Model the fold of this input.
Amino acid sequence: MMKINNIILETSIKVLLFIIVLYSVYIFTAGHYYPGGGFIGGLMTAGALVLLLITYDIKTVAKILPFNYRILTAIGLLFAIGTSAGSILFNVPFLTHAFTHVDVPILGELSLHTATLFDLGVYFVVVGVTMTIIQTIGEDE
Amino acid sequence: MLEIVIRIALFCCSLAMLGLIYRVIKGPTVPDRVIALDAIGVNLVAITALISIVLKSHAFLEVILLIGILAFIGTVAFAKYLEKGVIIERERNR
Done:
């Protein structure tokens, strides 16, 4: 079969991929005050990676992003359990979250919440599970 | 005034959606159906924007971008399936 040259897709991906990843990061960080959060942010990041997989192939993507997505899932679960169990150290019940207001020089007053770290765990688990499913289905012939 | 205009626009979008659904059901070839589904995604973006104006809420603006991205990914995946027979290749240039 003749080699198919899909240069339009490959060129447009180079712009679109960063927009999609930026959008997923925005949705993840805005999840406390606006619709969004770890789940949909992780799904959008996985969607960007799927777009990369469609444009190129599994070997190229594995060379660009040398992650093992199963380990990413484990790291996400570790984040969730760690932030939940960390509250035990301060003599409060499991899953109690704390927040504080911090004055950062350039960004102004920020409200830092440990629920964000829990959400980061959800984000990693969603990205890892989605990419594991898609890569496992895509690899077999 | 704006209320009436938005209702008319919603009605027109619904009519366009009905025409596209006719093309999805009737379309003789598979690419016809893929194009119609892509256009349904664009129509859905318009309807979501109009509905968010009706409800006076900006909570759906993320959904608009989301539908656009998902429609693009779906269409690209289907186009690659129609062209090559696989969506995700293991290795290119074999």
